[in-house]
């Protein structure tokens, strides 16, 4: 059972760490690889170069939303396909271990994807500025009142 006193603070910590990681990955693409370099890398993977800009925008917007607590569950859910895409198109062919040569395996992005899913399931956490307005059915199930 989730501890009702400390659980929301655990979700807050998870939310802030996930948001910070998304922003760091955005900054890596912006400042180190550059947007054009990131688009070129995407093209090298057989993906449209323009998708790099969508990924970068998703990383920064969902990262800020998670940290500030603006629709955090929705932000985590929106960020999830970015990590799944990173696994499928970049990391999977390198095996499991993230310290594998040539870009690393899927260990880290896989864990990160699971952590985003956990955030969706846990809820917004403490101090969310704008709680996620998920449908009432999900809220009823979350509180054990199946109707």
In short:
The chain is an all-alpha fold. It contains 6 helices and no strands. It has one domain.
Q: Please provide the ordered H/E string of secondary-structure elements.
A: HHHHHH
Structural class based on helices, strands and sheet pairing: mainly alpha
Tally of DSSP β-strands: 0
Oligomeric state of this protein: single chain
Radius of gyration from the alpha-carbon trace, in angstroms: 17 Å
How widely separated are the two ends? 21 Å
Query: Could you say how many structural domains there are in total?
Result: 1
**Total DSSP helices:** 6
Average of pLDDT:
91
Strand content: under 5%
**What is the 3D form?**
globular
Proportion of residues in helical segments? 55-70%
> Which sheet architecture does the biggest sheet show?
none
What low-confidence regions span 5 or more consecutive residues with pLDDT below 50?
none
What can you tell me about this protein's structure?
By secondary structure, this protein is mainly alpha-helical. It has one domain. The protein has helices at 7-33, 35-44, 50-68, 72-91, 107-122, 136-142. It is globular and about 45 Å long. The relative contact order is 0.16. The model has no long low-confidence stretch (mean pLDDT 91).
Secondary structure topology:
Elements: H1 7-33, H2 35-44, H3 50-68, H4 72-91, H5 107-122, H6 136-142
Helix pairs in contact: 1-2, 1-3, 1-5, 2-3, 3-4, 4-5
